[in-house]
Design goal:
Distance between the termini: 40 Å
Strand content: 25-35%
CATH architecture of one domain: Roll
CATH topology of one domain: SH3 type barrels
Largest sheet: 4 strands, antiparallel
Number of helices: 2
Structural class: alpha+beta
Number of strands: 8
Helix content: 10-25%
Length: about 140
């Protein structure tokens, strides 16, 4: 009986995995080259953000991706000192341009000011629901 039950459970698990693989693309697909236009999240995550005059206005605290894998927004930490008093704001991904200078190092630039970011609505990360929410939202229970 136990043998049949474990076989049935294995069959259900394999069916679920196969269904997931079919829904998400070709099962076992492996790239042999990196797409030419691909960039890494390290170009964004924890990087300082600058205004057009190269003044630091914040730091990217998180990258928000939709279920299809497309980057939708960036969470930018602004203000404060050493993380104390910092506020997290959300900006659309397309509001940030990535420029390069001197040694071809990429850096994020926004056409805004530090004060505009400080005055924007704030967000907080709720660890129990693993989502960002308005900073005045009570924590999920």
């Amino acid at each position: 009986m136990l043998r049949h039950l474990s076989g049935a459970l294995l069959g259900v698990a394999l069916s679920a995995s196969l269904a997931h693989a079919q829904a998400s693309g070709t099962p076992g697909e492996i790239l042999t080259t990196i797409p030419a236009e691909a960039g890494t999240v390290t170009h964004w995550y924890k990087q300082s953000v600058y205004d057009p005059s190269d003044a630091k206005i914040g730091e990217i605290a998180d990258v928000l991706v939709d279920k299809g894998g497309k980057v939708q927004a960036l969470i930018i930490g602004v203000g404060g000192f050493l993380g104390v008093g910092e506020k997290d704001v959300a900006v659309p991904f397309n509001a940030v341009a990535f420029k390069s200078k001197d040694n071809n190092k990429w850096y994020p630039v926004m056409t805004t000011t530090k004060d505009a970011l400080k005055n924007a609505p704030g967000f907080k990360y709720d660890r129990s629901s693993m989502t960002w929410m308005a900073e005045n939202t009570p924590p999920a229970r």
